[in-house]
Amino acid sequence: MSTIYSMTGFASVRSAADESVGFAIAIKSVNHRFLDLQLRLPSYCDGLEMQMRRMLKETLKRGHVEVTLQVERRASAQIQLNAELLGAYVGAFTKAAELHGLTSQPDMNAMLRIPGVMSAETTVGVEGIPELDRAVMAEMPLLVEKLNAVRAEEGAALAAELRNSMGRLRAFADEMATLRNGVREAQFERLRARLTELTEGVPVSEERLLSEAAVLAEKSDVEEEIVRLKTHIDRFVGMLDEGGELGKRLDFLLQELNREANTMLSKTSAAAGENSLRITELGLEIKAEIEKAREQVQNLE
Fold it and tell me: Which run of H or of E encompasses 70?
C-alpha cells in the first residue's frame, strides 16, 4: 500500500552557511486543487528560488505550499579607541586640576563613555553569501521529509475516518434494502384501493392490477441504486487500500455516490407505508455522510 498524504502540514529546519550566516526555513501546506508554490526569500536569492521550486515540484504533487527563508547575519564587531581624543580629555582634566590645586585623578570609566572616545565598527555583508545556496539546498530534503511525515500522519487519520464513513454508508444502504420490500407491498395495496375507488366498485382484473403495480414498482424501486451505491463503496475502500494520490479520484467517486443518493430520494419521495419515513431519513443521512466524506477528501493529495 502506498502512503496516503494529507495536503496539510508544517515543518521547519535551522542551519548555517558558515560561521557568520545562519538561516531558518519553514514550509507550510494546505489543500489546493493543484500544486501552488509561494516562496518568500530575501531579494538576493533569485537563483536559490529557482532551485527550490524545481526540487519542490519533483517531490510534492498537490497543495498550496508556502516556504519562508530567513537569513540571520551574525555581525563581527571591532572596538576602536580614539587615543588622540582620549588624551585630549585627560590633558584637559589634568590642567583643570592644576589650576584649582586639586590632586584627584580622572575617572577612566567616565572618560571611555564620552562620545567619540570608543566606537564599535560592525562588518556585515549586504550581498548574498555564495555558500548560502548550497547550504539551503542541502537542508531541503530534510525539510520535505519532515513535512511529509506530518502529512502522512494526517493522511492516515483521514483514511481511517473515510473507512468509517464508508461503513456507515453501507449500513444505511443495507437497512434501505431491507425496508424497500415493505414499501413495494404498501404501494401495491394503495394502488388496489385507488383503482377500486376510481372504478366505483367495479372489479379490476388481477392481471391489470399486477401490470399497473409493475409499472409503479419500476418507477419507485431503488434496488439498482442500492446495488450501485454498494459497488461504489467497495471501490472507494479498495482505493484506500491501494493508497497513493487519491484526492481527485475519490472526489469523483463521491460525486457518483451523491448522484445515486439523489436518485434514491427522488424515487422514494412518494413512498407509502410505515417504512416510508425511515427510507426518506436514510436517504438524507446518506447524503449528509457523503458530504462529510467529501470535506475529508478535499484534504487528500
Answer: strand 63-73
Q: Among candidates 55, 17, 22, which has minimal Cα distance to 143?
A: 55
Taken in order of first residue, the domains within the chain and their CATH numbers are: 9-74+129-151 (3.30.230), 76-123 (no CATH), 152-297 (1.20.140)
Strands 21-30 and 63-73: antiparallel
DSSP assignments along 36-54, one per residue: EEEEE--TT-HHHHHHHHH
Q: What is the pLDDT along the chain (301 residues), one digit of tens a residue?
A: 789 999 999 999 999 988 778 899 999 999 999 999 999 998 888 889 999 999 999 999 999 999 999 988 765 556 778 888 888 888 888 888 888 877 778 888 887 888 887 775 544 443 556 788 999 999 999 999 999 999 999 999 999 999 999 999 999 999 988 887 655 665 666 666 666 666 666 666 666 555 655 555 555 567 888 999 999 999 999 999 999 999 999 999 999 999 999 988 887 765 555 677 788 888 899 999 999 999 999 999 9
